[in-house]
Amino acid sequence: SSHNHDPALVKCANGDLLAIWITCHQESGRELGLAASRLRWGEGEWDAAAPFWNAPDRNTNTPALGSDGKTLYHLSGPPKGAGDRANLAPVMRTSEDNGATWSRARLINPERGIPNQPASSFIKTREGIILFSSDSPHPMPGGASVLWMSDDRGETWRLSRGIISGIHAGVVQLLDG
Q1: Distance CA 155, CA 141 (A)
Q2: In degrees, to the nearest 5, what angle opens at C-alpha 97 toward C-alphas 92 and 101?
């Protein structure tokens, strides 16, 4: 499309790099979906961009990718209705074969009006907790982010306490935990 941004990148277990991003003519449109490209291990050129995922008749924004070393996780926040960008509900898909196939999308939390806009920051902590940052509707100037956390490989999720100043927050684990 004519407008592409908000990329997410993950290293697959086989060494490939997989990138996804939003693609659209206008960000508020229902045609907004996700595209992908892969840099295969040992190759010097990325594969041609291709459609990645699109929730039917929705504005499929907020791409996030992550890995726990074996499983790939794709998170997104499609809205409740066709042009609605405020009432997102995060969904997750997983892949056990380096992104060749994906599970069906499932809601990780159906509640609306809470921080449900996944950002591209996804990590697995040394303790085995997987987490991703999410933009929050908090009224802080410049916006805010929170963390969604799971200690059972994405079966259940909980929100962190507190907020991070700014949207699309990047996350790393420090040496002190």
Answers
A1: 33
A2: 60
